[in-house]
DNA sequence: TTTTAATATAATTTG
DNA sequence: CAAATTATATTAAT
């Protein structure tokens, strides 16, 4: 998350954004729109609500790679998810997205191809935690299921994971715990209730 | 008809301390920042004063009622996401159909029971907006991302939602816009930077 | 099939 | 109200 430091300047950048009329200032209470007109499907087919998927891990990557000649090459983002371009090339398990469509595929190739696909669909490749990572995470979780940023960072360092992975892991872990609690509670209530009916 | 509510809609006292949902016992809110110390089993308990949470939507709650026979019946509000199709009807929270509780629980019952429980855990059940509701909200948002109370009320009426839901929706929507704005700015700066390296 | 990492977004809390 | 978090419903990878 430390990335935004680059964001500071470049005013020209914001100009080329479609739509987005700086939403903080104009409160446009003047706009005469009726809900009926909207319900009546007044379609302004302009920019459909910038449904930009959130792909934070892509921010860290760059299209720049060094070739064998030690010269930079720009790798063109090939992707089409919706109509946006996404570029890969970065992160843990890294594969090249230059699709060489010339032969048939080994198991390994097929695997990475699958990973490619999911990549292009815009989803972060699923992280496979090691047994040790899980163990540590579980131990920490036992003591504190809401670790603050400092603990998460420390964990990230020690376990060699992104802090983001840690945070997500804790989120999912809490959800899991809650699920199991709910289930046992349900059973308890159900049993209590059921037996109360039998008395 | 002559039902008497046994269930005061109040999960009294309860959890809902800041950051300490009730399903895990008291947790350290103040942490010492070393994983070693955590792994080394440092436990620390501190009671935090509970404040009564604001749960306005619980006021309508009546689950356990006495029937005419003076026996308890469990009334389970059933959310109809409609098992049939994926659309239509909104407002899961509001439309309640009563299931008479007998011996066993169907999958549907179980589900809604679980929802009940989470309800009592203190959080409003997540509202699932319909496609149409979203569409209208998005359209309004395009024109005015800060609708006043009157517009919100009107929307609420037309979309059959609480005005509160509308308000929250707009808040979240503004946050989303802002986020995406930030992100595209970042990407642009990044790309500018990258291509400047190629010149 | 089951579990769970990842995503999107509704709800809550703070200031 | 915005910002930051948290919860949760889904989706999809394994």
UniProtKB/TrEMBL annotation, chains A, B:
| Xref: PROSITE patterns | HOMEOBOX_1, HOMEOBOX_2
Its annotated compartments are: Nucleus
Fetch the Gene3D superfamilies from UniProt.
Homeodomain-like (1.10.10.60)
Its signal peptide is: none
Location (main, coarse): nucleus
Domain (Homeobox): residue spans on this chain: 120-180
Keywords of the record: Developmental protein, DNA-binding, Homeobox, Nucleus
GO terms for biological process, alphabetical: pituitary gland development
Provide the residue ranges listed under DNA-binding region in this record.
122-181
Please give the SUPFAM superfamilies that the UniProt record associates with this protein: Homeodomain-like
SMART domains linked to this entry: HOX
Q: Which family does it belong to?
A: Belongs to the ANF homeobox family.
Name under which the protein is recorded: HESX homeobox 1
Instruction: Please give the organism.
Output: Pavo cristatus (Indian peafowl)
């Amino acid at each position: 998350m430390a990335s935004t430091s680059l964001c500071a300047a470049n005013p020209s950048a914001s100009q080329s954004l479609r739509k987005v009329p700086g939403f903080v200032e104009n409160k446009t209470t003047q706009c005469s729109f009726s809900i009926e007109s909207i319900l009546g499907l007044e379609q302004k087919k302009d920019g459909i609500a910038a449904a930009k998927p959130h792909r934070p891990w892509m921010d860290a990557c760059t299209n720049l790679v060094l070739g064998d000649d030690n010269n930079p090459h720009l790798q063109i983002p090939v992707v089409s998810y919706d109509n946006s371009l996404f570029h890969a090339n970065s992160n843990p398990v890294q594969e090249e997205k230059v699709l060489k469509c010339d032969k048939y595929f080994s198991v390994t190739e097929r695997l990475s191809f699958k990973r490619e696909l999911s990549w292009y669909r815009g989803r972060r490749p699923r992280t496979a935690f090691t047994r040790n990572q899980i163990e540590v995470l579980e131990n920490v979780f036992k003591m504190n299921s809401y670790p603050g940023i400092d603990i998460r960072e420390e964990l990230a360092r020690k376990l060699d994971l992104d802090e983001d992975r840690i945070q997500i892991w804790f989120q999912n872990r809490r959800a899991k715990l809650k699920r199991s609690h709910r289930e046992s509670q349900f059973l308890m209530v159900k049993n209590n209730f059921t037996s109360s009916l039998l008395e």
